[in-house]
Amino acid sequence: MKKPLLSLHLNPDDFLPATPDEKESLVVMRKSVNFWADGLRRLRKNKVAMVSLVFVILIMIFAYVLPAVWPYSYEQQIQGSENLSPFEYGQTELAAKEAGESVFPHICGTDKLGRDFAVRLMMGTRISLTVGLVCAALVLLVGATFGAVAGFAGGWVDNLMMRFTDILYTIPDILLIIILATVLRERLKLLAEKPGFMWMQTVGPNLLAIFIVFILIYWVGMARITRSQVLVLKESDYVMAARALGANSSRIIKKHLLTNCIGTLIVTTTLQIPSAIFTESYLSFLGLGVAAPMPSLGSLATDAVKGMNTYPHLLFLPAVIISITILAFNLLGDGLRDAFDPKLKN
Questions:
Q1: Mean pLDDT, to the nearest integer, of 229-254?
Q2: Buried b or exposed e, range 155-173, using 16+ CB within 10 angstroms
């Protein structure tokens, strides 16, 4: 039945039941997926992020697996093998080869004390990666908790907590890092000599000082990001429903607010890792990093500066590893942001 052309009545044909063919054409062919599955699918399509992930895995294998099977230790000094070029042998090793013994080559040469530089690169990468990963996790814990409490509480509590973060923002980072690292290192050395704190000598007072410095400084950015997310999420219907059912504030923050902004927190934490690695590197370059003989990429670069004209590979190799590591984590963080940020979904 068709209506007249100039009629204002509704067309009855528009209300006829849909045919099986019409119903089939409206079926969504792609199956429904959750937030994480959809994010991983988008991440796998990002070739740059996947290549960066491969580099991150290779760097971790280089730092955490290879030192266990390497024939040299990072503190082992070999007499007569000082300042060797890559794949060069010292006098003691040449004599051992002439005697028929098997000698593993120094792939990256040795330093001025006759220590294999390849294994020192591995251990230096391990220290820098450990600092980056642990500090990023601690910054996530402190910053997310502070920002979630400030955003959920609101009012004068939010204003007071955010003004405190504004004060920290006004202090120059480099100056504050150097002062805190110097003071904390000396304090922790004295504390590690007491009977109840002997465990600090295992970790190292310098490394503990770096962890504390990062917690005291870099949590501010994480707190601001978390607060902005919580301010939006706390007005959601499911938060109102949780309040109506009698859930307390701590449960709402843990189970509802932080859970729903976990994607943003993961991306921000991933981008925090290269910042921590870079900061540890220049602290070690300034002599405020880990104590000898434990190496880090920054301390290896510091030791190699004086002989850069004679032995440039000792400076070039740690600099390249620092650059590759920071670039890989930055590109991976960008890929995670593109994959898990709901505002960027197409």
A1: 85
A2: eeebeebbeebeeeeeeee
